[in-house]
Every structure is written in structure tokens, then in C-alpha cells.
Amino acid sequence: MKKSKAGRERLKIVTIAEEPLEFIPYVTAARGSQGIVYECLPIYRGVILGLPKEVEALIVASDLQGMALHDNGEYGDSLVGEKLPETLEHLLQLHLPDVDQAKVLICLCGDLYGDTAVRGSSGDPLPVWRAFRSRELHPSA
Length: 141
What we know:
Layout: E1 12-16, E2 22-29, E3 36-43, E4 46-49, E5 57-62, E6 67-69, E7 75-79, H1 80-95, E8 104-109, H2 126-134
Parallel strand pairs: 5-8
Antiparallel strand pairs: 1-4, 2-3, 2-6, 6-7
């Protein structure tokens, strides 16, 4: 494996599964902010080489722009990113039970806020960060 200029191994994605492990349903503003659309956030498993020894798994999430759906199909004030940590924690326990969740590196990228009224709106992403912090999963700063 090639090394970076700093002498560390470069990360290399070996595979990403064709089918998602799970979907998280959510709603978001439709194009042109004309109503809402129902979407699903897919969660894929992959294999990556070059992680530091201190990191047993890497989770990358980006552009979590929507409101989570409740089991009854309705949505409220919870961002889809607030639902994600609970789902990831469950998937890790189910599919990678030997991974120490304290050694999972999480990278949250892009927009973490969604509004059902206005597509591309801005808002407070802190509830997403707090949701990850309240679980065993802790995103990197």
C-alpha cells in the first residue's frame, strides 16, 4: 500500500456492498420547495485498508438533510441525523460484534440540517452531534 508524504498509509476503499444493510426513512423538502418527498437514507458496509491501529471501523455520513420518520410514518422535529447513531450502534452490534465502539471513527460531513418547508435551508446541526455523543458512538471533531 502506498504511503502519504507524511509516511502514513493512505486509505484505500476495497469494496462497498451493492445492497444497503439498512434504510432510515425520512422526509425532506421537494425540489423548488413545493411540498415534501419521502426518501430513505441507505447504510452500506464496506472494507477499507490503511486505518490506524487505534481505529477498528470508520463511519462516514454526509448531507443528512431531512426529518426522521417515526414508526407510525409521521415526522416531527427530529433530524434524520439524530436517528442515525441508534441505527449504526445496532448495526455494529449485529454485524461487527467484536468491534470496540470506542474505537469507531465517525466523520460527519456536509449539511446535517433539514427543513421540510425549504430545500437547502440552514439550521442548527447540534442535535445531530448531540445524538452521536449520547450514544457509544462519538464523531471526531
